[in-house]
């Protein structure tokens, strides 16, 4: 059972809020810089731009605006931006399959961890969470929800192990205080989950 003090929860919420605000501010700065750079590049090099060139510039600006609006909408819904992906951390617990279904309904999937930076980012949530890793199709052949095999892994010592013969086909972050934090767990256990949507 996870017991958390009110102070820890409040501190975590403040840190998460700061991260969201900082991410949004950086994205706004990036958009403004891109808009200015594109306009300067196209207008300063040739003051007699053709209608086709002007259409391309307007289209690029419109696409950037749409992406920024989409990103802002996700952030307002509680998603967190990190390294070209959006992440959603559930506030309830569920089985691995039901957790994945929730992610799919949100237009995402359970998180796929492809780098040490992403692993450490996920650990910062300091929660036992489902990740998009399973060997349900073939025992000891771990695959991500997109069908790929892990190119990097962060299994804890002696994991995965199907503890005492238990059918543990789903991956989770369990030992989040250390980098090698992955554990195999029965899929019908209930955990918090993290969805990932590539941007």
From TrEMBL:
GO molecular function terms attached to this record: carbohydrate binding; RNA binding
InterPro entries, per database record: C-type_lectin-like, C-type_lectin-like/link_sf, C-type_lectin/snaclec_domain, C-type_lectin_CS, CD209-like_CTLD, CTDL_fold, YTH_domain
SUPFAM superfamilies for the chain: C-type lectin-like (SSF56436)
UniProt cross-references to Pfam families, sorted A to Z: Lectin_C
Keywords, ordered alphabetically: Disulfide bond, Lectin, Membrane, Transmembrane, Transmembrane helix
CDD domains: CLECT_DC-SIGN_like (cd03590)
Domain YTH: residue ranges: 108-199
Membrane-spanning intervals of the chain: 19-42
Stretches assigned to the C-type lectin domain: 82-196
SMART domains, per database record: CLECT
The protein, known as: C-type lectin domain-containing protein
Organism: Oreochromis aureus
């Amino acid at each position: 059972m996870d017991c958390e003090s009110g102070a820890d929860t409040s501190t975590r919420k403040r840190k998460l809020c700061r991260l969201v605000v900082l991410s949004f501010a950086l994205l706004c700065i990036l958009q403004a810089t891109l808009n200015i750079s594109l306009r300067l590049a196209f207008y300063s090099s040739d003051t007699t731009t053709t209608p086709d060139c002007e259409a391309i510039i307007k289209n690029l600006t419109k696409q950037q605006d749409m992406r920024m609006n989409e990103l802002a909408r996700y952030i307002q819904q509680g998603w967190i931006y990190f390294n070209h992906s959006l992440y959603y951390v559930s506030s309830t617990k569920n089985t691995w399959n039901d957790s994945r279904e929730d992610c799919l309904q949100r237009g995402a999937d359970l998180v796929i961890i492809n780098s040490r930076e992403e692993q450490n980012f996920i650990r910062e949530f300091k929660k036992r969470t489902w990740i998009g890793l399973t060997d349900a199709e073939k025992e000891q052949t771990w695959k991500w929800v997109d069908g790929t095999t892990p190119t990097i892994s962060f299994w804890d010592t002696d994991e995965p192990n199907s503890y005492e013969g238990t059918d543990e086909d789903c991956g989770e972050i369990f030992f989040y205080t250390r980098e090698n934090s992955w554990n195999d767990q029965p899929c019908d256990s209930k955990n918090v989950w993290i969805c990932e949507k590539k941007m």
